[in-house]
TrEMBL record:
GO molecular function: carbon-sulfur lyase activity; metal ion binding
Keywords, sorted A to Z: Metal-binding, Zinc
Entries under Gene3D superfamilies matching the protein: 2.170.150.70
Residue span(s) of domain CENP-V/GFA: 99-213
PANTHER family associated with the record: CENP-V_GFA DOMAIN-CONTAINING PROTEIN, CENTROMERE PROTEIN V
Family membership: Belongs to the Gfa family.
Name of protein: Mss4-like protein
């Protein structure tokens, strides 16, 4: 959502000192996210009449599913985004499909070796998943290989039972960790995966206790 500086009032923290900044492509804008929880907050254009873009998912009391979506052709802007090099998997056993994944900047890469084609995902409406628009699958940890995990920042809240991991450089949500043995992977980080054909299972995480307080 575009905005002018006079329409934007910071009540807590500071745009420059509090938020992390990530730039890519022609670096015509700065993407700003919270370094603690990874939430994308805003974008700052380096020129133009409306220099600020607000991430509508951080707004309170907004029904995101009811909003009309205006499609952008930004994916075709020059220079075209180059997907980070996939991890080497070696010889992949017959019947196994490798899914190559990464954050935007490529500091974190991972590969899922799956015996089944990905056809469905879980969409949670909890306070953190709705902010990040994450789509989840829950594979066995033994089927996932990570590289650059030192660049992962984890955030937990409420019951502290789930650790939400995001890239500390570009802010992209990578995974959710449940203890040491179970993980969820954000399908939006899977390069080349067509999300439009997935069956979406909805989970009412918003109703789980303790309730999140804005």
């Amino acid at each position: 959502m575009p905005a002018k500086d006079e329409d934007f009032i910071v009540l807590n923290g500071d745009e420059t000192a509090t938020l992390s900044t990530y730039e890519c492509g022609k670096r015509t804008s700065a993407h700003k996210f919270c370094p603690t929880c990874g939430t994308a907050v805003m974008g700052r254009m380096h020129s133009g009449e409306t220099p600020i873009g607000i991430a509508v998912r951080v707004l309170s009391d907004v029904d995101f599913d009811s909003l009309p979506v205006l499609m952008s052709d930004a994916a075709n802007l020059e220079p075209l985004y180059q997907v980070p090099e996939p991890l080497e998997t070696g010889v992949v056993p017959e019947g196994i499909t490798p899914y190559h994944c990464s954050c935007h900047c490529g500091a974190i890469r991972y590969t899922l070796l799956s015996s089944q084609k990905i056809a469905e995902a879980t969409k949670c409406n909890c306070s953190i998943c709705s902010r990040n628009a994450s789509l989840w699958i829950y594979p066995l940890t033994t089927t996932v290989r990570f590289d650059g995990i030192d660049n992962l920042t984890e955030y937990t809240f409420a019951s502290n039972s789930v650790y939400h991991g995001f890239c500390k450089i570009c802010g992209v949500t990578i995974r959710g960790r449940f203890g040491d043995s179970d993980i969820g992977l954000n399908l939006r980080t899977m390069n080349g995966l067509d999300l439009s054909g997935l069956e979406i299972k909805r989970v009412d995480g918003k109703a789980m206790l303790p309730a999140y307080e804005v």
